[in-house]
Amino acid sequence: MQSQTLNAACCVQDKCVLNAPVLPRKSLWRQILEGLKPRPYIPHIRALNDHMARDIGLTPAEMERHRLELPSQSMHHPRG
């Protein structure tokens, strides 16, 4: 009786596994080539021009706040 219960449980699991959709696997070379594709350029908020900033709804004050670079955030030394 116990073996019939186990067989029934296995059959139910097998059906679930067999009915699952099988996704096509990508080859290793395809994965490598996809990793080498150039990604689209998304500019940093500091690099946006005023027109693009207005289009996304930033005020001039917000843009200046994002463009401000404190000396501690920079590698530039004023004496050379």
Task: Summarize the structure in words.
This protein has 80 residues and is mostly helical. The chain has helices at residues 2-19, 28-36, 50-56, 60-67. The chain is built from 4 helices and no strands. The longest helix has 18 residues, at 2-19. The N and C termini lie far apart (87 Å). The model has no long low-confidence stretch (mean pLDDT 76).
Number of strands: 0
| Quaternary structure of the protein | single chain
The N- to C-terminal Cα distance equals: 87 Å
Strand content: under 5%
Quick check: average pLDDT? 76
Shape: elongated
- Derived from helix and strand composition plus strand pairing, the structural class reads mainly alpha
Residue windows where pLDDT falls under 50 for at least 5 positions: none
State the helix count: 4
User: Radius of gyration, rounded?
Assistant: 29 Å
Percent helix among the residues?
40-55%
For the sheet with most strands, the description reads:
none
Please write the string of helix (H) and strand (E) elements.
HHHH
Protein topology:
Blueprint lengths: L1 H18 L8 H9 L13 H7 L3 H8 L13
Provide keyphrases for this structure.
80 residues; mainly alpha; 4 helices; elongated
Give a short summary of the structure:
With 80 residues, the protein is mostly helical. It has four helices and no strands.
